[in-house]
Amino acid sequence: MTTQIEKADLLRSLHVPGDPLILTNVWDAISATTVARTPGVRALASASHSVSNARGYEDGEGIPLDEALDSVRRIVAAVDLPVTADFEKGYAEDTDGVRANVARLITETGAVGINIEDSVGADKAPTFPIEVAAARVAAARAAASDTGVPLVINARVDTLAGGGEWSDAVARANAYLEAGADVIFVLGLSTEELVARAIAEIDGKISVIGHPGAVPLARLADLGVSRVSFGPFALGSALANLRRTAETVTAGGDYPDDLGFQFSL
C-alpha cells in the first residue's frame, strides 16, 4: 500500500457483514506495531480513552487536540496497515470546527478512518439534537472531500448506552448514514436480539464493541455485524497482565514467561 487513498479504500472493503473486521485497539507506536505483526490483523484502530490515559489525560477530549493528532501520527507512522482514529466529537463545538479538525487529522497524521460520537459531554447522555449530530457527520465527510481521501466514517450512536429510546437510536443511525457515514457504531447492543434488530432496521453496516459478557464474536459474525472493536478494554487487558507480573515479582515469585516477550518498533 503506497497511498493514503489506497489504505482508505482497503479499510472500507474490510467491513463485510458476516465477516467482521476485528480491531484490537491500540494507543501508541509500540502497541500498534505489536498488534500489526499479529497474524490475521488487517487494520488498526486507536482508542481515545487509552490514548488519553496513556498521556495522563482523562477521556472525553481531555487531551489537547495537538497531542491527540500527534498520537495518531505516531501510530500511523509505525505501521503499514490502515489506521482508523477515535476522534471523539471532533474536538470542536461547531461543524466548521469539526470539518477543519478532521481535515487536519487526515493531512497531518495519515489516518484513513475515524470514529465520531454524538453525545455532548464525556458521558453517553445527553446527545446532540439529531440534526446537529448529522451535520457534524456531514462536516467530517466534507473534510474528506476537501482532502481527496475517502475517509471511512464510523459514526457512533450513544442513545441506548445513555438510557435513550430505541426509535431515536435507529433514526440517528439512518440520519448519519444519509449524512455520509460508512458504518454505524451502536453502543448498547447487549443481546443477540438487539444486534439482530439493529441490523434489520438500520440501513447500513453495523459496528459494535466487544468485551467480557458481550455477544460472542462468532455469533456477531453469524448475525451480520461488519466490525468489532474493543475500545479501552484492550489497554485494560495489557494493564491487567502488567499488574499480575508486578504482583508476582514483588512477591518474589517465578519470573513470568511474558517477561521474555520480544518487542520492537
What can you see in these coordinates?
Strands 1-8-7-6-5-4-3-2 form an eight-stranded parallel sheet. The chain is globular. Helices cover 46% and strands 12% of the residues. It is α/β, with parallel strands linked by helices and 265 residues long. Helix 5 (95-109) packs parallel to helix 6 and helix 6 (130-147) packs parallel to helix 7 (166-179). The protein has helices spanning 4-13, 29-36, 48-54, 65-78, 95-109, 130-147, 166-179, 192-201, 217-223, 233-250; strands at residues 21-23, 44-45, 83-86, 113-116, 152-157, 183-186, 205-209, 227-229. The chain contains ten helices and eight strands. Strand 6 (183-186), helix 8 (192-201) and strand 7 (205-209) form a beta-alpha-beta unit. It has one domain (7-249): Phosphoenolpyruvate-binding domains (TIM Barrel).
Structure in a nutshell:
The protein is α/β, with parallel strands linked by helices. The protein has helices at residues 4-13, 29-36, 48-54, 65-78, 95-109, 130-147, 166-179, 192-201, 217-223, 233-250; strands spanning 21-23, 44-45, 83-86, 113-116, 152-157, 183-186, 205-209, 227-229.
